[in-house]
Design brief:
This protein folds into two domains: about 280 residues, no CATH class; about 100 residues, no CATH class. It has nine helices and 29 strands. Strands 17, 18, 19, 20, 21, 22, 23 and 24 form an eight-stranded antiparallel sheet that branches. The protein has a seven-stranded mixed sheet with strand order 1-10-15-11-12-27-28, with helices on one face. A six-stranded mixed sheet has the order 4-9-5-6-13-14. Strand 13 and strand 14 form a beta hairpin. It is globular and about 65 Å long.
Amino acid sequence: MIVDHLTWILRERTGRDLRPTSQVGAEPTMPRTDEGSGGSMKESLCAGVGRSVSASSHEAGREAALEALERAGGSASLAIVYATVMHDQQALIDGIRAVLGEVPLVGGSTQGVSTAGRVEECSWVVGVAVVSASPRIRARTIAVQGFSADPHAAGLALAEGLAGAEGPLLLWYDPLTGGNVTELLRGLEAGGFPRIVGGGAGQPWGPLNHTYQYHDGVVLQDAAVAMAIEGDVILIHDVTNGTESLGIELEVTEAAGHILKQIDGQPALEVWTEQLGGGPSNNVEDTASWALGVALPEALASHGEELITRAVFGFRHDTKELVLQASIETGSRLQLCHRTPDAVYERALQMATRLQRRCAPYRPLLALSFECGARPRPFLGDPLAAQEVTQMQEILGDPPWLGTYAWGEIAPVGAHSYLHNYTFPLVILAERS
């Protein structure tokens, strides 16, 4: 069961469920094995992605899961799910589980979904990705509800539940409950997981309302959900933001965690509204005008992108403070940044080219994108957003692709993971040879 803060769930699929009170569905059919050149039998892993735009939530989940399952060869070892908030979230997940059974399942609500040759930001859309069942792959999942109360402890709990896993973790979280994502990542790193890729669950572009996170058969809020994928697979990742400094430097003269109190000695909200022209409303359309860039150490800067970008996610009008998703220390120097469609688009294609080269020794199974929700329709527009994704898919060789439009993105830079905004992390799940 899931209860309040720091009660966590561990679910590990090894042919049985480790929770004594859980019921396990029928084992999925194993994929066909092929005889290798040395006469040994080796199972081929495969992945499938399905989608639905049905307004019937249970049917939409069922329809997307059936398509994904068919494309994966009829079995599933894990599922990743994204859906818009207009859906009845529990009915949707129930429809997916009716098809896939009790496979480990993670994901969250989203602003939109990208799949092969298609980008959809609409009221009713769901995307499901699965990887075929095999002894060569295993997924473990864990969820912590109420993570915003103590994000560092929540990160430690996630790490404890996935202890022993190798490689990067995939992570989803609620971006709208005021949780300090830097502390969540610090807790995960203290527990042995410095490399995390993922994003905040999403909602329609506009006023901030609520998001949902998915863990197995349960729909959560104010939660952090993680998945470890182990076996004869590797997660290969990269990141791009496409922002450029305007040459205007600001100093954080007072901060408390992820709350900006003063910038250049003035109340942070006054600087935001009076000097930068930002809007003080509870609408991301008014906060997306500017990005705050935090400089990386020179040794970590790469690909011409030397800044980690941060966005404002809330206002405290009574104290004239700005709320971010991640910490910025007092004394930090910020760069005021802007984005151009050309830089956003071209750097995404450059990232795909880098990943294609790095994937050469492996067989790509599944692409998972965590593109910031402020990049597609709100900035690039629908035609260019679709062209961006389609061209990236072509560069990568058209693997099965499932993308969310995230509200806050997580990706490693160097040896540590950071919270980013206006950014595009991309992960390739690949089969080892």
